[in-house]
Design goal:
This protein is of the alpha+beta class. Helix content is about 25%, strand content about 30%. The protein contains 15 helices and 31 strands. The strands form eight sheets. Strands 23, 24, 25, 26, 27, 28, 29, 30 and 31 form a nine-stranded antiparallel sheet that branches. A four-stranded antiparallel sheet has the order 1-9-3-6, with no helix packed on it. Strands 17-16-21-22 form a four-stranded parallel sheet.
């Protein structure tokens, strides 16, 4: 916890600090003095070079209770007019994610059950020391300005950056006059190091679960905690939504679809799992069915809900509505399509989000830049009809996002035609190199924001300007996306997948038992049909039916001519590949199928 105190004519001062902004339920053990620096302040956030001194040994402290520290500064008269930066430390009964002990606790638990052949291991919403949420801060009209710290964190910081974390904590708040880049660099280093803690534990749990229970063990559950980029999430989970080791991307609640697609495509499998609850059953089933279009399956979070967050799944009337949706999901699983075709990749600067400096007006309630509205921009693109996937610069740094031989960006085989890059401030060199190569190969790029300093505090202004000059559009503008040579999605109630298949959903037909209609065009042919709930269909390049899965299927037509129909709606799966098969759910065994000229 940080405080500032002006020393008197005798170089003395006193300050009382209290532990704050850690969530209730986490046990506070004790509080005491951490470090005190003194300097001649020249302006807010700046000091006169050559005046900075560590005066911790000139201070005494006492703790009348475990949450309070009273600091008495007793330096010499020559410190008259100096400002003291007082840091107090407050210990909690909580594992440091940077310490091996945090990982070992989970590993020991896994080993204890090694004799049971579990099919999966779930680590859900794993966090650092849980700090105050943005809504708690807003209610109290307070701001979060504290810094999580541990000995293990300090050791890793020193090893990686050759820099003492104790000094970095000061440098995050003050810079020598005329050297703002020193403060920017300290914040960048701290936030990157802080974010790495939860990821280390996630990686250890994943690796050991595979080792103990086998390589096919399912790695489950999500680390999306409060589902907001610009609130307290970065302090809780490190915003590693795209980075935790999984085969399947996983999210929860109302994570925006572009964010979900970005997370999904950051992993090798073709499905994303979303854990969801809502107080409205209609909202639950409506979202679960619609999400099927985009490769998303639903974990119904509020099973036997007793906290009032959602709808309890143990009621027959609830299952009456959920089961038809899950039947559609099972039919889609049998079809097993690829992820949606996404031609536009939206990349945001994680470094710019994590560091508001030097613009005080962008310093948010949780000490990050909350004025960027990154997810809102990605959603605006989606709402305008352009299918986009949102990812952070993390994927450039770890090598998952690359350029192929044609200069197109690729993640796990997902190939994009254009990039929207949001906020370059404090970019790593790897990010700048990636963008330079992209535009030099003729890539279509829309940029938003400017960059003065890179991650290490070096001047990058001219380098960024050179990228902007070569970009197609150098301001975020949904109306100019057409200049990137990507096309709006014109499908009604449906999505085109990368493998050429289509998925359509309609919740009204499922609820009312009526037939919904779908239509799409492929190579000049128009395909149409009728279904209930969900239909997935794949047509070959020469216009032949390859695969079909549908709930309450009635008919499929090509240019108005019948291809396949039933005399009354029924669930259907058809695979007309090398080993053709057609299955119809018909308990009466009386439904008749009609085939046109295939």
């Amino acid at each position: 916890v940080e405080n500032e105190c002006l020393l008197d004519v005798n170089g003395q001062g006193q300050f009382t600090a209290k532990a704050r902004h850690v969530r209730s339920g986490v046990q506070l053990i004790k509080s005491d003095l951490f470090k005190v620096y003194a300097f001649k302040k020249t302006a807010e956030g700046f000091y006169l070079p050559g005046t900075l001194k560590d005066i911790t040994t000139s201070c005494k402290s006492e703790s009348p209770d475990k949450e309070t520290v009273v600091v008495n500064i007793n330096s010499s008269p020559d410190m008259n007019g100096y400002t003291a930066f007082v840091m107090t430390q407050h210990y909690y009964n909580y594992s440091s994610t940077h310490d091996l002990n945090a990982s070992n606790r989970f590993i020991e638990a896994l080993r204890a059950y090694a004799d049971i052949p579990f099919d999966g291991v779930g680590l859900d919403e794993y966090t650092n020391l849980r700090v105050a949420t943005q809504w708690e801060l807003a209610k109290a009209k307070e701001t979060f300005r504290e810094s999580p710290y541990s000995l293990a964190m300090a050791q890793q910081f020193k090893t990686k950056y050759g820099y003492d974390l104790e000094r970095a904590l000061f440098d995050m708040r003050y810079a020598p006059q005329g050297k703002p880049e020193m403060r920017a660099k300290a914040i960048n280093y701290y936030m990157e190091n802080m974010r790495s803690g939860t990821l280390q534990v996630e990686q250890a749990v994943y690796a050991n679960a595979k080792k103990i229970f086998g390589k096919d063990e399912f790695a489950g559950l999500h680390d999306t905690h409060h589902n907001s980029l610009d609130g307290d999430e970065i302090w809780q989970t490190g915003l590693n939504w795209w980075n935790i080791p999984r085969e399947y991307g996983q999210t929860d609640e109302s994570t925006p679809t572009p964010t979900q697609l970005g997370i999904a495509q950051s992993y090798p499998k073709n499905v994303l799992f979303n854990m969801y609850y809502n107080k409205s059953l209609d909202n639950i089933t409506g979202k679960a069915l619609t999400d099927l279009r985009y490769g998303i399956r639903t974990h119904y979070h509020a099973l036997n809900d007793i906290q009032g967050w959602g709808v309890s799944m143990d009621k027959p009337e609830t299952l009456d509505q959920v089961n038809p949706v899950e039947n559609c999901a099972r039919l889609l699983n049998r079809f097993n399509p690829s992820m949606p075709q996404t031609k536009l990749l939206v990349i945001f600067g994680m470094e710019a989000l994590a560091n508001w400096y030097p613009n005080e007006s962008q310093r948010g309630i949780c000490d990050v830049n909350d004025k960027l509205f990154i997810e809102e921009k990605a959603k605006a693109i989606w709402d305008a009809g352009y299918r986009d996937a949102l990812v952070p610069t993390d994927l450039i740094l770890d090598g998952r996002l690359k350029l192929d031989v044609t200069g197109k960006p690729v993640i796990n085989g997902h190939r994009y035609d254009a990039i929207v890059f949001l906020y370059p401030q404090y970019s790593h060199t790897q990010t700048l190199k990636f963008l330079e190569e992209f535009v030099n190969k003729g890539g279509k790029l829309m940029t938003e924001g400017d960059g003065r300093y890179d991650f290490d505090g070096n001047d990058m202004e001219s380098r960024w300007k050179a990228i902007k000059i070569k970009s197609t559009v150098n301001v975020f503008d949904v109306n100019q996306l057409v200049k990137l040579n990507i096309h709006q999605d014109t499908l009604r109630d449906g999505a085109l997948n990368s493998d050429g298949s289509y998925v359509f959903t309609d919740i009204s037909s499922l609820r009312n038992g009526t037939l919904a209609k779908f239509t799409f065009e492929k190579n000049g042919d128009t395909f149409s049909g009728q279904y209930t709930g969900m239909v997935a269909v794949r047509i070959s390049d020469n216009g032949e039916l390859l695969k079909l899965s549908a709930g309450g299927f009635k008919e499929l037509r090509k240019n108005g001519k019948l291809i396949f129909s039933l005399d009354r709606p029924a669930d259907v799966f058809a695979d007309l590949g090398a080993d053709p098969q057609v299955m119809i759910a018909d308990t009466t065994k009386s439904i008749k199928a009609h085939w046109g000229n295939l």
